[in-house]
Amino acid sequence: MLTAALKAEFITPCFCGGADQSKPELRTQSIRGQLRWWYRICGATRDEEAELFGSTEKISPLTVRIAKVNRGPEPFNLNDQNNELSTYLWYFLTNQGRECLPVKTSFELELKSREKDLLEKGVAVAALWISLGALGSRSTRAAGCMRLVQVDCDKADCPQTKKLADAINEANEPVSLWDTIKSYLPCKKEKKPFELYRRPKETSSGLNAAKWLAEKWWEVRRYKFKPPHKSWIIYNGIGREDHDDAIAAMNNRLNDDLRVRRVVLGMPYTQNFCNTTLEWKYADGEKFERLASPVHLRPIYKKDKIYPALLIFTDRLSDCPNHVYAQRAGKIAVDQYAAINKVKSICTIQEI
């Protein structure tokens, strides 16, 4: 049996759990689910996914096991945080009283297989998930993010697999990591399956990077906000644009410039106004479920520094409808790329 071990360390708190959601717990099933998702994002077909991770008709030839969990030294209580994390981005976790695995909690992910090629594929997708993915509740909103500490393939007893591990260990930033592992993944295109943007300036910690992202995401989504004893703050984000265009549509000021942007980013498809509520549906009137956001907020680790970053899965924009409909507003176009460009503009980020 060939074996590889990947050591990961959390750079933001991880709100993961099992049957008892109040107690944090790393579960192999959750990690396998994340590895499957990233493998599919990289272009794996159903058959290719089953070949590596198994299916209802086939046992997985790749064993995944969690080992050597070392809890971080500093406990984290979300209720003690009086900032955009506790009051906005991770708000419902505060209400649930969820505990977490704190920053600097580390664990080893052991992968085993009898086939060298399958082990190398497993190592590649696991390294990608640890470096750019996350685990647990609010994992797309900067919680449960990690850094890859080390890949150890000494027990694989295979020079090629050890060479892959050495190359991953030398790749100390996401772009070089992708260049290292992409040949082991089922990529059907030369282009990456995601776009990665980051703030040019680093932060002092993963938690501070998450706070910065929370502030920016608040600005993206909000229309206006009134702090205590202060004047209203009017934002220039998607919340304001959707508000103004919806008002124009309800007042019969329909024109080709009116747009709906909120459904693109997985925001609620209802809009509340003083005397009415708009519920956006498909153009034919059929109700649709809230879409998953193609934008993931993600502190990333690069050369011993942590930067706030956005992962944008542009291929998932095809899931958005071209038009939506509300009873009082009529039929309005969905502007997918304007929504994404507004996010980039507000966050003042650069592609890497």
Summary?
The chain is α+β, with helices and mostly antiparallel strands and 352 residues long.
Describe the 3D structure.
- This protein folds into two domains: 2-190, no CATH class; 212-351, no CATH class.
- It contains ten helices and 18 strands.
- With 352 residues, it is α+β, with helices and mostly antiparallel strands.
- 32% of the residues lie in helices and 21% in strands.
- Helix 5 (116-132) packs antiparallel against helix 7 (174-181).
- The strands form six sheets. A four-stranded antiparallel beta sheet has the order 2-3-1-4. A four-stranded antiparallel beta sheet has the order 12-15-5-18.
- The chain is globular, with a radius of gyration of 22 Å.
- The protein has helices at residues 28-41, 46-53, 84-89, 91-96, 116-132, 159-170, 174-181, 206-221, 238-250, 336-347; strands at residues 2-10, 63-70, 106-113, 146-152, 195-198, 224-225, 233-234, 259-260, 270-272, 277-279, 281-282, 295-297, 300-302, 305-307, 309-312, 323-326, 330-334, 350-351.
**Helix run count:** 10
The average pLDDT is 86
Low-confidence stretches: none
Q: What is the helix/strand order?
A: EHHEHHEHEHHEHEEHEEEEEEEEEEHE
Q: Kindly report how far apart the N and C termini lie.
A: 38 Å
Tell me, what's the shape? Answer: globular
Largest sheet: 4 strands, antiparallel
Quantity of strands, as a count: 18
In the sheet with the most strands, the strands line up as 2-3-1-4
Beta fraction of the residues? 15-25%
Going by helix content, strand content and strand pairing, the class is alpha+beta
Number of domains: 2
Helix content: 25-40%
The radius of gyration computed from the alpha-carbon positions, rounded to a whole number of angstroms, is: 22 Å
